[in-house]
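Thread: "does anyone have the structure for this chain?"

Original post by V.I.:
We have the sequence but no experimental structure in hand. Need at least a predicted one for the grant figures.
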Amino acid sequence: MQKNKQVIFEDLGLLDYKTCWDHQEILFNKTVAIKTENRNNNTRIPTPNYLLFVEHPHVYTLGKSGDEKNLLINELQLQNKEATFHKINRGGDITYHGPGQLVGYPILDLDNFFTDIHKYLRLLEETIILTLAEYGIKGERSKGETGVWLDAKDPAKARKICAFGVRCSRWVTMHGWGFNVNSDLNYFNNIIPCGIQNKAVTSLNKELGVKEVNMNEVKEKLKKYFSVLFECNIVETSNVFNS
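Reply from O.Q.:
Generated one for you, tokens below.
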């Protein structure tokens, strides 16, 4: 069967975490259902691929292997910070999402690309690294720690600018990355990010020493490098929540 290298792109703007999670699940389950039908009925229906961009209101999410002790505030303090908390079905530990952070959720059938989850994660990291390079910032990998870091080899300076947590079942992916573009970094003080102690977080605007980076510009750079690295054609579509 010919592989589908078309990726449907949705920019969801600012959207509640649970609403977006439900939307991901619908797209994920749709793709898995097509794969199941193809296998059971020996059909060749192409499976779709999606790339969602979104910003969330303040929220902390805990992955399947995470420790709830890495959330350092209680329910009342969450309410006071106008933040929510969700236990979710991705890998990884705890992370924060909020306005100014560009979250990317690729929902890909890796059978359309390559069946290698490690390669998948490395290409997602490379998408961020190449985007950072356009701003004169050297993004790096830290051995044994998924994500994109600055000064990764210097424990005194190492700081994470993009966290990753994915789910993959039947070679269909969901969840993805949280790229701190214009994030309020104070919210990270309420967690042990990704369960990694004594390492700082940073954001693109902080590193550039500016009040705000143009988010639409960042989105275009990310889409460009994503399409190059995954050798795919990104097709724009309207925000389903504004229709």
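V.I.: this helps a lot. The chain has a mean pLDDT of 92.
O.Q.: and Residues 32 and 172 are 7 Å apart (CA to CA).
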